[in-house]
């Protein structure tokens, strides 16, 4: 029985009669000639088709509104106002669950009217009750594990926000998800009514769903010199930047002449003017592309800028993009959610605020360590086990990094209780402390039994480790590097020497972006400490004020699955690639060999081949496979692309950042300087305020020139020649 066919006896909806399609009709004259009328009824049912509640559409609506909706729950043979205590199901749930089982496409729309229209067109469609922005984790759970989902966004601001909410909620738990809009009209109903088919929806990106950003705090400053300069600058930009003919030539010429009369440019206000212009032209046309430039939009943007000049902004010189400005946030591809770890993350994701990427990398590191040092693969004579060092980097302390650790730990307690209790550690303060947990027995030890060489260091306050390794005489950095490389550890001291052979150590750290930038040193980048970590950006995935519904029983059920996977994996010895994986590896290897950015990013990605291989090995072991298949490599490549994007996001302009604080200051100063050039004297005085020795400044400049960041030439203006340093062009 479909939701629309659920029993709906007469007299249950304000005295109106329902038919099998859910439609209702009726009218009466009021003071304005019309009174509220129930025009449609949409019945929500459970998976068996039993009616739970219904949504009634009123046009005209109640309380003088053009339209409104009421919800009533099924009680005995009738309906009662409200839906308290009713399970929050999706519309047309039986069809949705059947489509999920049979791996059919499921369309998700904003309202019941659109869902019915798509169903009439022959596809499975659903929505949540309550309309836009009312999607809840319980709704996500119904679609978790679906193979294909298409979100159809309404073409307005609230519709884009709703579609983005759905996309963010479903992306971690659905294998393939896309967002589309109507080719004509506002929504799916308009699209179909215009004669277009289901196949004609226009695909859009998640970025296009973000819509215009909110305006900055502003104050009125109409008529001020500052606003006039803003308008002049923006007009000049519009005149010089937009395609020829886009602005009426006469008006553009007047604007340009006006701009030429002004000496200064209000850079920030001008930026705001251009932002407003972009936002006004940022809506999508029928092909899903931003609407083209129009003269009216340009001049409307200037009017808005005149009326909204942010407080404290003053005229200044326009500058280029600053070095270190961040790239877009990384996005984890669906291919990364392969096999049992992917299914585990998809099961947890609807019930937690933790980032799916953090959940996945935590699960991978835990599994790889719990297996032990036995299973391995060989690359260029080197043995690689499933030792992974993820570093979860959050934008702030509220990125729910710790939540990802808690969620995965709760599952692994059921998978390997001994390992969780005795072989996982939450801190390490020295190289000696790390070695002690996996050290070989000493000659005079009474207990000569082999020690468990597994050690999983999951460190919530990774900034503490960064500080510990920086202490004078500390061995921690060297020990961590050896732990990643071979597992043969030595504290390299004559008094109290410690040694561990064949140690299987994994490191998982949590740190904020600010802590990372404050504690990561040039030495960490140069000596390879940093590039042994898989940098994983994490952000709060959703807001769950009442928490999720991943129960202890769920944790036990998934823990048993992980336990069986561990048992299979521990029986595997050497893992090789099959033929398809070997062919793909050749292509990926060549791609990684060509990925040689400059500066700090180049150093941090220089161990990419080994990282991808270890992640692929871990995926194979999750599957209990003695060979690395193509799908394991594809999943590992998706993880690496995310980690690579995280590095770019954290460390900004990948060609400009070097990891050397003095060098980066010089580059930033050259970015701001007119014509991107400064004399050596100006660099000493303005960049270092005369506090750096001449030989230090000269050494930094030689370093930058050697690595292609800057060029120099000697110039003479009648006196003593000066060395002028200029910023090189980044191709």
What keywords describe this structure?
alpha/beta, disordered N terminus, 27 helices, 731 residues, 5-stranded mixed β-sheet
Task: Characterize the structure shown.
The chain is of the alpha/beta class. It contains 27 helices and 23 strands. A 5-stranded mixed sheet has the order 6-5-7-8-9. α21 runs parallel beside α24 (630-651). The model is unreliable at 1-31, 212-299 and 301-325 (pLDDT under 50).
Given helix and strand content, the structural type is alpha/beta
- Given as residue ranges, the uncertain stretches (5+ residues, pLDDT < 50) are 1-31, 212-299, 301-325
Number of E strands: 23
User: In angstroms, what is the radius of gyration?
Assistant: 31 Å
Percent of sequence in beta strands: 5-15%
Characterize the overall form: globular
Q: Ends: how far apart?
A: 62 Å
Short description:
This protein is α/β, with parallel strands linked by helices.
Please render the helix and strand layout as text:
Layout: E1 38-45, E2 51-58, E3 68-75, E4 78-81, H1 93-101, E5 105-108, H2 112-120, E6 124-126, H3 137-143, E7 148-153, H4 157-170, E8 176-181, H5 188-193, E9 202-204, H6 206-209, H7 225-241, H8 249-260, H9 267-280, H10 295-307, H11 339-348, H12 356-371, E10 377-379, E11 382-384, E12 390-394, H13 401-415, H14 417-422, E13 424-425, H15 431-436, E14 454-459, H16 462-469, H17 476-485, E15 489-490, E16 499-500, E17 504-512, H18 513-519, H19 522-526, E18 534-538, H20 552-570, E19 576-577, H21 579-594, H22 599-604, H23 608-622, E20 627-628, H24 630-651, H25 661-672, E21 677-679, H26 680-687, H27 694-706, E22 710-715, E23 722-727
Parallel strand pairs: 5-6, 5-7, 7-8, 12-17, 12-18, 13-14, 14-17, 19-20
Antiparallel strand pairs: 1-2, 2-3, 3-4, 8-9, 10-11, 15-16, 21-23, 22-23
Helix pairs in contact: 7-8, 7-9, 7-10, 9-10, 11-12, 12-13, 13-20, 21-24, 23-24
């Amino acid at each position: 029985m479909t939701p629309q066919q659920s029993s709906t006896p007469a007299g249950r909806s304000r005295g109106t009669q329902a038919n099998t399609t859910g439609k209702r009709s009726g009218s009466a004259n009021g003071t304005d000639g019309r009174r509220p009328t129930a025009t449609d009824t949409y019945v929500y049912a459970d998976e068996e088709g039993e009616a739970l509640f219904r949504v009634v559409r009123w046009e005209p609506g109640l309380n003088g509104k053009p339209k409104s909706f009421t919800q009533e729950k099924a009680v005995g043979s009738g309906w009662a106002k409200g839906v308290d205590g009713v399970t929050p199901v999706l519309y047309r749930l039986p069809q949705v669950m059947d489509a999920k089982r049979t791996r059919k496409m499921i369309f998700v729309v904003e309202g019941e009217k659109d869902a019915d229209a798509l169903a009439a067109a022959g596809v499975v469609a659903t929505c949540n009750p309550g309309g836009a922005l009312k999607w809840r984790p319980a709704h996500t759970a119904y679609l978790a594990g679906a193979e294909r989902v298409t979100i159809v966004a309404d073409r307005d601001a609230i519709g884009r926000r709703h579609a983005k909410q759905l996309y963010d909620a479903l992306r971690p738990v659905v294998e393939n998800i896309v967002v589309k809009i109507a080719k004509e009209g506002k929504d799916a109903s308009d699209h179909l009514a215009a004669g277009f088919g289901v196949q004609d929806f226009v695909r859009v990106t998640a970025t296009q769903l973000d819509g215009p950003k909110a305006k900055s705090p502003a104050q009125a400053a109409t008529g001020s010199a500052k606003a006039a300069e803003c308008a002049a600058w923006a007009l000049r930009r519009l005149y010089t930047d937009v395609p020829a003919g886009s602005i009426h030539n006469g008006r553009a010429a007047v604007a340009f002449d006006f701009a030429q009369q002004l000496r200064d440019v209000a850079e920030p206000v001008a930026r705001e003017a251009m932002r407003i212009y972009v936002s006004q032209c940022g809506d999508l046309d029928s092909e899903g592309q931003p609407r083209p430039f129009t003269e009216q939009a340009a001049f409307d943007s200037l009017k808005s800028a005149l009326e909204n000049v942010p407080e404290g902004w003053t005229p200044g010189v326009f500058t280029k993009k600053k070095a270190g400005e961040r790239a877009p946030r990384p996005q984890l591809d669906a291919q990364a959610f392969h096999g049992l770890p992917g299914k585990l993350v998809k099961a947890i994701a609807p019930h937690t605020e933790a980032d799916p990427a953090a959940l996945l990398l935590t699960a991978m590191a835990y599994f790889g360590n719990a297996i032990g040092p036995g299973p391995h693969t060989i690359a260029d004579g080197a043995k690689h086990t499933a030792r992974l060092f993820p570093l979860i980097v959050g934008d702030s302390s509220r990125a729910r990094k710790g939540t990802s650790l808690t969620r995965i730990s709760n599952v692994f307690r059921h998978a390997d209780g001994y390992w969780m209790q005795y072989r996982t550690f939450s801190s390490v303060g020295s190289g000696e402390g790390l070695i002690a947990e996996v050290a070989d027995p000493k000659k005079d030890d009474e207990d000569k039994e082999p020690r468990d060489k597994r050690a999983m260091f999951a460190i919530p306050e990774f900034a503490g480790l960064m500080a510990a390794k920086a202490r004078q005489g500390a061995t921690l950095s060297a020990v961590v590097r050896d732990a990643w490389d071979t597992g043969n550890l030595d504290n390299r001291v004559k008094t109290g020497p410690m040694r561990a052979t064949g140690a299987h150590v994994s490191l998982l750290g949590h740190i904020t972006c600010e802590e990372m930038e404050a504690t990561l040193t040039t030495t960490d980048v140069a000596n390879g400490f940093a590039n042994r970590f898989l940098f994983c950006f994490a952000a709060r995935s959703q807001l769950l004020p009442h928490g999720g519904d991943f129960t202890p029983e769920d944790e036990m059920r998934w823990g048993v699955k992980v336990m069986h996977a561990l048992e299979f994996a521990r029986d595997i010895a050497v893992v090789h690639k099959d033929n398809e994986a070997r062919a793909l590896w050749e292509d990926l290897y060549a791609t990684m060999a060509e990925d040689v950015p400059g500066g700090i990013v180049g150093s941090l990605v220089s161990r990419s081949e080994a990282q991808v291989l270890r992640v692929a090995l871990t995926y194979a072991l999750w599957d209990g496979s003695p060979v690395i298949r193509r799908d394991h490599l594809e999943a590992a490549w998706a993880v690496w692309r995310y980690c690579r994007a995280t590095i770019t996001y954290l460390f900004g302009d990948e060609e400009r950042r070097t990891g050397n604080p003095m060098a980066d200051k010089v580059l930033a100063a050259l970015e701001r300087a007119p014509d991107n050039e400064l004399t050596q004297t100006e660099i000493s005085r303005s960049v270092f305020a005369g506090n750096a020795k001449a030989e230090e400044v000269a050494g930094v400049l030689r370093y930058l020139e050697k690595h292609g960041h800057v060029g120099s030439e000697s110039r003479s203006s009648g006196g003593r020649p000066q060395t002028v340093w200029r910023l090189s062009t980044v191709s």
